[in-house]
């Protein structure tokens, strides 16, 4: 079985760039890598509903913390077989966002921390009930909320179809989410975490060596 590696962080943190660098480094080291990003826009009806709700579609759906969290969870539940198959075929399965994203953003929206009811609910729903695989390691790509906001703004201005959504536009939400992420990482929620400074240039090959995966 391969190893399940998850990259977490704020919107605009640079997770996609890190994923691309790690994938190349693992390939260069002779490892096979499968990648997947959540939500699976364009592939999952649940993900597409998320996108529409975040841009003010479907009435007040986007205002419901538990309603949106359920859509995120259902998107991942429908991907369980894909993830498990990839773990059988590849040395590493690298995910851009996973269960911790649901916990961090939902808790932040409710002004809770990592010890609150919402984080427990997400774990019971996604891991215990839906049977999502537990990560081998989670990487928190940590940047200051204002830096992430600047990157998200720049991405929205330069990439077609990447207009900022309701979460990305809420600076206070992003700051609260960053605090919840820090707590989840400090407590090794679900699995071990490694915190990476998003303001620093990382040697992907060295990071792959340190992770010792596979």
TrEMBL record:
Of the GO CC terms on this record, one is:
cytosol
Q: Which UniProt keywords apply?
A: ATP-binding, Kinase, Nucleotide-binding, Transferase
Q: Key word Ion transport present in the record?
A: no
Among Pfam families, the record links this protein to: Thymidylate_kin
Q: Which SUPFAM superfamilies match?
A: P-loop containing nucleoside triphosphate hydrolases
The record's listing under Gene3D superfamilies reads: P-loop containing nucleotide triphosphate hydrolases (3.40.50.300)
| Superkingdom, taxonomy of origin | Bacteria
Give start and end of each Thymidylate kinase-like domain: 7-185
GO MF term list: ATP binding; dTMP kinase activity
Give one GO biological process term: dTTP biosynthetic process
What are the coiled-coil residue ranges?
A: none
Q: Which family does it belong to?
A: Belongs to the thymidylate kinase family.
* Protein's name in the database: Thymidylate kinase
Which species is this UniProt entry from? Amycolatopsis taiwanensis
């Amino acid at each position: 079985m391969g190893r399940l590696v998850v990259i977490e962080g704020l919107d605009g943190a640079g997770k996609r760039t890190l994923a691309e660098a790690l994938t190349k480094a693992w390939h260069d080291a002779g490892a096979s890598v499968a990648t997947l990003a959540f939500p699976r826009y364009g592939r999952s009806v649940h993900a597409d509903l998320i996108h529409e709700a975040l841009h003010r579609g479907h009435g007040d759906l986007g205002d419901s913390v538990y309603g949106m969290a359920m859509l995120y969870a259902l998107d991942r539940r429908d991907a369980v077989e894909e993830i498990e198959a990839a773990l059988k075929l590849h040395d590493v399965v690298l995910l851009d966002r996973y269960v911790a994203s649901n916990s961090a953003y939902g808790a932040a929206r409710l002004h809770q921390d990592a010890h609150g009811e919402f984080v427990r609910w997400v774990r019971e729903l996604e891991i215990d009930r839906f049977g999502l695989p537990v990560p081998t390691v989670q990487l928190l790509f940590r940047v200051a909320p204002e830096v992430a906001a600047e990157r998200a703004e720049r991405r929205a201005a330069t990439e077609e179809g990447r207009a900022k959504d309701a979460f990305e536009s809420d600076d206070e939400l992003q700051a609260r989410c960053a605090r919840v992420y820090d707590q989840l990482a400090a407590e090794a929620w679900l699995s071990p975490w490694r915190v990476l400074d998003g303001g620093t240039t990382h040697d992907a090959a060295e990071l792959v060596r340190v992770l010792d995966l596979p």
